[in-house]
UniProtKB/TrEMBL annotation:
SMART domains to which the protein is assigned, alphabetical: GGDEF, PAC
Signal peptide region: 1-43
Protein name: diguanylate cyclase
Catalytic reaction list: 2 GTP = 3',3'-c-di-GMP + 2 diphosphate
Keywords: Membrane, Signal, Transmembrane, Transmembrane helix
Segments forming domain PAC: 459-511
Length: 687
C-alpha cells in the first residue's frame, strides 16, 4: 500500500517532464523547418565614411546616395561623419575609426610615405585648393609672398600649395607659416597676407562681406592635382573587396544624381543633414563643384594612372615625399586585378607633357603681368622677368601657343605652332583657327568652346587638327580668356601640347592587330559605358554577335593565312556598313561584336540583315573558295531590357548565335521573343 502511494507522484512527475520535453522538441523542429523554408534577410553592413569637412555640397554625392537608398541597395548602412577637430581622414581610416574617407591628392602623398591607403575614385578632377590674398595688397603670384604671413593647414592637406611655393622659390624659411584657424576674419583683419582656401566656396564668402580677393591657383603654375578622392585602407580592400566595390558604386551613382539635381540635394542638405550654409552659398558651391568634377567630359571618379605618377613625381621633386616612395597598391582596381601597363617612359612622357603645357601657360600669363608692373617692381622682379623671357624663348620653340582677338583672328603664334601646322607665321596671322580645323570635329565642339571662353572660363579638350599637307595631328588644347587691366576680356590665349604620339600609343593599346578593329579590352570599356547609359536613361542598347561560318574548315583546308584574310575581310565589311554611332570590334577568335546604341530590337535585326547581305556580296582578296561557296556568317541579336546585366545581355545574343548555327548557319536569330513568348522573332530580309 505504501509503495503504491509513492508510485503515483513519481509517475505524475515523469509524465509531466515527458510532455514538456515533447513540446520543446516540437517547437525546436518547427523553428528549424521555418528557418530552412524561409530565406533570411541579410543584415546591412555597418560602415563609416569620414568626411574632410562639414555637411555641404562638396559631399553631395554621398548624401544623395544615402537619401536615395543607393547605399542600402548595395547592402550598406553608411554613417556619414563630418570632420571633427583632430586627426585628418587618412589618420582616422588607418586607425580603424572609419572604413572610408574623403581626402584629396594627399592619398598619393600618404602612399608615397608608406601608408597603406587605397584610392577608389577621383571625384574632383581638379583640386579646388588655392591661396587667397587681399586685392588691395596687390599680391598676384607666389613669388610676391616672400617674407609674408601665409595661413596654411597641415602639411599633408596643403601639400599642393607647398609644392607650388617651393617650385616658385619659396622654401619653409622664406615665409611665415601661420596655423590655419579656418576663419575668414584672419585675412580680412590683415592678420595674415594669404590664406589657403577652397575656390568652390570661400571666394563667395568674401564677396558677401564686400572684400575683394585675388586667387593664386596652383593650376596656373603647373600643379593640376586631383581634388576630393574616395579612399579606404588596404586592409579592408583586401579583406572585403566586395564591400569596397559596393561603396564605390553607390557613391558614384549618388554623385551622378547630385550633379543632375543640385537644387533637390541642397534641400536635403539643409533639411536632413544639418548643413548650416545658406541656400545661395550651397548653390554657388554646386556650380563650382561641377566645374571641378567635369561630368560632361570625364566619367565621374575616373583616375588616370599617368597623372598619379606625375603627381608623385612633383611631390618627390619638391621634397615632400621620399625619393624611393612608390605608388604600388594605391589603385583599388590594380590591387584586385593587376593589369598590363604601358611602359614607364610612356607614363613619364604623359606627365612631363602635362607639366610642360601647364607651366608654359603659366609663364605666358606671368609674363604679361610682369610687363604691366615692371615700373613698380624691384630689381629682383626685373631679374625674374629676364629669366622668364629665356623660358618664353624655349616655349616659342617647343610649345604650340597662339593668341586671338575677340573675333577669333590670330594675333600671335609660336614658332612651334607654325611648324606643326606647316604654315609660315605670316600666313597664320590675321586668319582664324578654322584654317587647321579637322573635318571630324563637330560644330558642337566649337560652340562649346566659344560659349565657355566668352563666359570668362577656361576650356580644355583634346582635338584633332589638320596640317597644311593634309596630315592629322592631335593636340591637348588649353584656352584662357585674355583680360586688360580692367578685367575686360580682349582676346584669348591657347596653349597646345602635341599628343599625336600619345594617341597612336592609345590606339595600339585598344586595337586588334589583325583586323584594325577595337580589341576585347576596348569593347569591354565601351560596353560598360553604353550599358551605363541604358541604366541611367533607359535608352535601348542593341547587341549583335557575328561568327564566321565554317572557319575551322577554312583554316584546315586553306591554311591559317587564308583564315586571317577572312577575318580581315569580314572586319572591313562590318566597319564599312555600321552607322557612325555604332561600335564594332573583335570579340575573340572568329567572333565579332557590334554595339548599337539607342537601337531597339527591330533596328538591331535590320542592322544584322544589312551586315549579312553585305558579307554575302564581299570578295576576300587572295581567297579561293570552292565553286558555289561564298563567305557567310551567323548572327545573334539581343537588346537591353529592365533588370539586365551586361552578362545577361551578351548571353542572350550568344544564345541567338548558337541557334543560328544549329539551324544551318548563314542566318540571323534572336531569343528576345515577341510579346515575351521566348520564340525567335521573324528574320528580316537582307537590305
Amino acid at each position: 500500500m505504501k509503495r503504491a502511494i509513492m508510485k503515483r507522484p513519481m509517475n505524475s512527475l515523469t509524465g509531466f517532464l515527458a510532455r514538456r520535453l515533447a513540446r520543446c522538441l516540437a517547437l525546436l523542429l518547427l523553428a528549424i523547418l521555418c528557418g530552412l523554408g524561409a530565406p533570411s534577410a541579410r543584415a546591412a553592413e555597418q560602415v563609416v565614411l569620414q568626411l574632410k569637412w562639414h555637411p555641404q555640397f562638396q559631399f553631395a554625392g554621398y548624401y544623395a546616395a544615402d537619401k536615395l537608398g543607393y547605399f542600402a541597395a548595395e547592402g550598406l548602412a553608411v554613417t556619414i561623419r563630418p570632420r571633427q577637430p583632430g586627426p585628418n581622414p587618412v589618420d582616422v581610416v588607418l586607425a580603424g575609426q572609419a572604413d572610408f574617407g574623403v581626402s584629396g591628392s594627399a592619398v598619393v602623398l600618404s602612399r608615397l610615405r608608406g601608408r597603406p591607403v587605397v584610392l577608389l575614385a577621383a571625384v574632383f578632377q581638379h583640386a579646388p585648393l588655392v591661396l587667397l590674398t587681399r586685392s588691395e595688397d596687390g599680391i598676384l603670384g607666389p613669388s610676391e609672398l616672400k617674407g609674408r604671413r601665409i595661413m596654411l593647414g597641415p602639411e599633408r592637406e596643403d601639400a599642393l600649395l607647398l609644392a607650388m611655393l617651393r617650385n616658385q622659390g619659396l622654401g619653409p624659411d622664406d615665409f611665415i607659416r601661420v596655423p590655419h584657424t579656418f576663419s575668414d576674419t584672419a585675412l580680412i583683419d590683415e592678420e595674415v597676407d594669404a590664406v589657403s582656401a577652397y575656390v568652390t566656396n570661400q571666394p563667395f564668402q568674401y564677396r558677401r562681406r564686400g572684400v575683394a580677393v585675388n586667387i593664386i591657383n596652383p593650376v596656373g603654375y603647373g600643379f593640376d592635382f586631383y581634388g576630393d578622392t574616395l579612399f579606404t585602407s588596404e586592409a579592408l580592400a583586401r579583406r572585403r573587396p566586395d564591400l569596397v566595390a559596393a561603396m564605390r558604386r553607390a557613391s558614384l551613382k549618388g554623385w551622378r544624381y547630385a550633379l543632375d539635381h543640385p537644387e533637390q540635394v541642397i534641400d536635403w542638405l539643409i533639411a536632413d543633414y544639418g548643413s548650416t550654409k545658406s541656400r545661395d552659398y550651397l548653390a554657388y558651391e554646386a556650380g563650382m563643384t561641377r566645374r571641378m568634377i567635369m561630368p560632361n567630359l570625364i566619367e565621374i571618379g575616373h583616375v588616370n594612372p599617368a597623372r598619379l605618377n606625375w603627381i608623385a613625381d612633383v611631390y618627390r621633386a619638391e621634397g615632400l615625399a621620399p625619393p624611393a616612395g612608390r605608388l604600388d597598391g594605391l589603385l583599388f582596381d590594380d590591387l584586385m586585378t593587376p593589369q598590363v601597363r604601358l611602359p614607364d617612359w610612356v607614363r613619364w612622357l604623359g606627365g612631363g607633357l602635362g607639366l610642360l603645357g601647364a607651366a608654359s601657360f603659366a609663364l605666358l600669363a606671368l609674363n604679361r603681368r610682369l610687363k604691366r608692373l615692371v615700373a613698380e617692381r624691384t630689381r629682383e622682379l626685373e631679374r625674374a622677368r629676364d629669366r622668364l623671357q629665356y623660358y618664353l624663348d624655349i616655349v616659342d620653340k617647343y610649345v604650340l601657343t597662339s593668341a586671338t582677338d575677340l573675333s577669333g583672328r590670330i594675333t600671335y603664334v609660336s614658332s612651334a605652332f607654325a611648324r606643326a601646322t606647316g604654315y609660315d607665321k605670316a600666313e597664320l596671322l590675321g586668319r582664324t583657327h578654322g584654317l587647321i580645323r579637322h573635318p571630324d570635329n563637330p560644330d558642337s565642339l566649337y560652340q562649346e568652346m566659344w560659349s565657355t571662353v566668352l563666359a570668362g572660363r577656361s576650356w580644355h579638350r583634346e582635338m584633332k587638327n589638320l596640317a597644311r599637307d593634309g596630315s592629322t595631328f592631335w593636340v591637348e588644347s588649353n584656352i584662357e580668356p585674355t583680360r586688360d587691366h580692367d578685367g575686360t576680356i580682349i582676346g584669348f590665349t591657347a596653349v597646345r601640347i602635341d599628343i599625336t604620339d600619345k594617341k597612336r600609343i592609345e590606339e595600339l593599346s585598344v586595337t586588334d592587330r589583325l583586323t584594325g578593329l577595337f580589341n576585347r579590352f576596348r569593347l569591354d570599356e565601351v560596353l560598360a559605358r553604353e550599358f551605363g547609359r541604358f541604366e541611367r536613361y533607359g535608352r535601348p542598347l542593341g547587341v549583335i554577335l557575328a561568327d564566321v561560318d565554317h572557319f575551322k574548315q577554312i583554316n584546315d583546308s586553306l591554311g591559317h593565312g587564308a583564315g586571317d584574310r577572312v577575318l580581315a575581310g569580314l572586319a572591313r565589311v562590318l566597319a564599312d556598313k555600321v552607322r557612325a554611332a555604332d561600335v564594332v570590334g573583335r570579340w575573340g577568335g572568329e567572333e565579332f561584336l557590334i554595339l548599337c546604341p539607342e537601337t531597339d530590337l527591330e533596328g538591331a535585326l535590320m542592322m544584322a540583315g544589312k551586315l549579312r547581305a553585305a558579307l554575302g556580296e564581299a570578295a576576300v582578296e587572295g581567297l579561293d573558295l570552292p565553286a558555289g561557296r561564298r563567305l557567310t556568317a551567323s548572327f545573334g541579336v539581343a537588346v537591353s531590357r529592365p533588370g539586365d546585366t551586361i552578362d545577361s545581355l551578351i548571353s542572350r545574343a550568344d544564345q541567338g548565335l548558337y541557334r543560328a548555327k544549329n539551324e544551318g548557319r548563314d542566318r540571323i536569330r534572336t531569343i528576345e521573343g515577341v510579346g515575351g513568348s521566348g520564340e525567335a522573332a521573324p528574320e528580316p530580309e537582307p537590305v
